[in-house]
Every structure is written in structure tokens, then in C-alpha cells.
Amino acid sequence: MNEAQVRTLEQARQVVSGTQALEFRRAENDEGRYAWIASVLRRFDYGRLKRPERGVVLAYLRRLSGYSQAQVKRLVATWRTGEPLVKRYRAPEHAFARRYTRADVALLADVDRAMNTLSGPATACVLRRQRDVFGDTRFERLGSISVGHLYNLRASADYRAQRVLQTKTRPTKSVTIGVRKAPAPDGRPGFIRIDSVHQGDLDGVKGLYHINAVDCVTQWQVVATVQTISEAHLLPVIEQMLAQFPFKLLGFHADNGSEYVNHCVAKMLNKLRIEFTRSRPRHSNDNGLAETKNGAVVRKLFGYEHIPQRHAVRFNTFCVEYLNPFLNFHRPCLFATDKLDPRKPGRIKRVYLLKDAMTPLDKLTRLPEAATFMREGVTLEELHALARALTDVQAAEELNEARSALFRRVPARTG
Q: Fewest 10 Å CB contacts: which of 72, 90, 131, 321?
């Protein structure tokens, strides 16, 4: 917009804050700028403004005039006394010679205005081409200017007097990955919490990683093993894990680690119509279920010692064929029952009763309308048939034998 169109204090605030685009060419001499300052003070009726409003006008004058705060205040004080704003000083008679004149500075400002302010080297090239290629004699001195001195001219008061450009602030596009909140399943399965478990370092070499995902309501658990938590290795494993849950997935909750909070995981979940949530600051229990299972299942089974990354495929096969069926069909979990605390009225107390111990499959079966939550092609009858193929003790013995065989091959390969 044109500077003369700035007639309200709100418009002046927008110019000062940089949210209003304004192209304004100041007068080349002080007399012209003094006259402009006087016109702005009359336009805003400065003498009738309140103190906060005067601050806005003073900031506006400083921004567009290029004068310091002290100089603007002196000029305003002079104007309020009714005296004309005229230049009361002059340059010294014996000043140092200037290589680049005010005409050169004005010419540089015109070039920057036309070229939309290129970088220093690019602008110097334009100036040199204007003189050497196109034979413009006005660029006789500017054609040889160095990049450093070009920036000096741009920072000079003469240049700023020639060209003042206030650009509108461009808001940055904020992309939020995931929503910071705790999962809210409301008794529905399909809201999983996921976490990573690192299998130790050895002489600065990282071991493999276990990925642990647990459903909030049924405690249905899927464990997988991955070589690294980079995109190339992690994404296929996460897709494999999601496919192992027998019910439709509605939520995916993780802590704030970059292995999960990234655009690739968010894109995959968005494609599957799964809500992505993240742990909140100062809410350590948001992902507490997965972290509890890390210690009770993953660490108890695999320990803490270093396992080389090259064994990740073998460990992942063990999880798919032995560990995950055992966890969901044969390993009982405790489910809390909420009761009112008789000693503290209004307070809910969680107790764990003997009748509340059951496998994740049994918990899924006991949910109201459990069949409606199942994934297409998966039925509760098929899951119970798989669970009855082995007793709980037989499944545990088979798991231990497979685990022993797995770890017998690990030291043989690492020794």
C-alpha cells in the first residue's frame, strides 16, 4: 500500500510490526524528510493523542525515516512548539573524499529495486555487466565495486533513504505430527501403545532393537525385532506388527522419540485411518503400559546383554512364531477393577482380583459385542481354536525350547 494511505493507528502498528507490506521511497535530503515528518504528525493529530498512541506514531516515524529515536523525538518536540522543521546543521567543509557518490548509491538502490535485491555477488555481476556488456556509463564506478563494499553501501543512510521496503510477515507452515494426549479407548480394543527397547551396546557398536506394542483394553501384545530404528528397517516391521492384531486398530500412541514421530509413520497411520497420539509433557503414565511390558516381558525374556544387529531377522521370526502367540493365548494378565475407596469418599481405587486374571484373548472375548471389533477375515472362533492347540504349559515349554535354541546360535556367531 502507499504510505499516504496509512491514516489510522492500527495501520501504523501493522507497518511497525512488519505485517503490512509497504513500499515507500523517502526524500533524498533532510528537508524532504522533515516535511514528511511534519505531514505525518498533522495527519495523526499528534498533539491530541494519548501517550501509548504517541508511541506508535514515534515508532512509525523511526521505521520509515531512518532517523534514530533521539533525533525523531527532537524533531517532534520542535514541531510541537510550532517552529518549522528545517535543517540547522551542515556538513564539514573539509570532509574525506568519497569514491561512491550519492548518485551511485541511488543507482544501486534502483538496481536492487528492479532485481528484487539479489545477493552481493550476483548484484556485483549485474553492475559489471551494465558497464562492460551494455556500455552504461552511469555504472563506471559501481562496475568495479567489491562485494564487501556493496553491502556497506546497502547499510548506509543514503541507501536506506532511497529504498525502504517493509514486507509482510509470512507465517511458517506448522506441521504437527500426532496429538499430545492420552489414548481414550472407552472400553474399545484397538488403541495400542508402542515403545522401543534397545538390546545393549558393545564397544560402541549398537545392538538390535525390540519394538513392543500393547493394546490398552485387552493387553494384546505384539513384539517384533528390528536391526535399527531407521526408516528403512522400522516401517516394514511396524506394518507387520499392526497386521498381527486381530481387531481393527483405531489409535497409535508413542512417546516423543523420533523413530515414531516422523512424517513416514504419520503418513502410514493416516492411510490406515489410525489416530496418532503422543505422550504429554509431565505425564509419565501416558505410555506406562508399554513401558511396564518392556520390563515384565521383553527384558525378562531377552535380558540386557548385547545382541548384534545381524540376528534381528532370526529374533523377529521367534517373536512371530512363538512369543506373540504365547503372550496372547496362554500368558494371563491382570486387569484392574475400579472401586470406591471407603476411607476417602469420591476417590477411585484400583484393585486386582483373582477373577480378573485372564489371557488377552479371554479379555477380548468378554468385551460387549466383541465380534464387531474384529478385523475382516478374523473370528473369535478361529483364535480360540489356535489357543486350544496347546495347553498353557505346553506353549511355555515350546517357547523356552525355541528361546534356548535361538540363544545357542547367537554366541556361536559373535565369538
A: 90
3-state secondary structure of 365: helix
The three-class DSSP label of residue 284 is: coil
Q: Computed from CA positions of residues 216, 217, 219, 225, in that sequence, does the dihedral angle turn out positive or negative?
A: negative
Q: Which of 318-327, 387-396, 404-413 holds the top average pLDDT?
A: 318-327
Topology (CATH level 3) of domain 179-414: Nucleotidyltransferase; domain 5 (3.30.420)
Residues 364, 370: contact at Cβ < 8 Å?
yes
Name the residue ranges covered by the structural domains of the chain.
Answer: 1-90, 95-165, 179-414
E-strand stretches of 13-116: 22-24
- Assign 3-class secondary structure to 150-179: HHHHHHCHHHHHHCEEECCCCCCCCCCCCE
**pLDDT confidence of 172, banded at 50, 70, 90?**
very low
Q: Average model confidence (pLDDT) for the chain?
A: 85
Q: How far is it between the farthest Cα atoms of the chain?
A: 107
Task: State how far the Cα of 360 lies from the Cα of 336, in Å rounded to an integer.
Answer: 13
Name the nearest CA neighbour of 238 among 253, 226, 256: 226
The H or E element containing residue 113 is: helix 102-115
**And the C-alpha cell for 358?**
485372564
Nearest to 325 by CA among 388, 408, 252, 407: 388
For residues 262 and 384, which has the higher predicted lDDT (pLDDT)? 384
Contact 293, 221 (CB under 8 A): yes
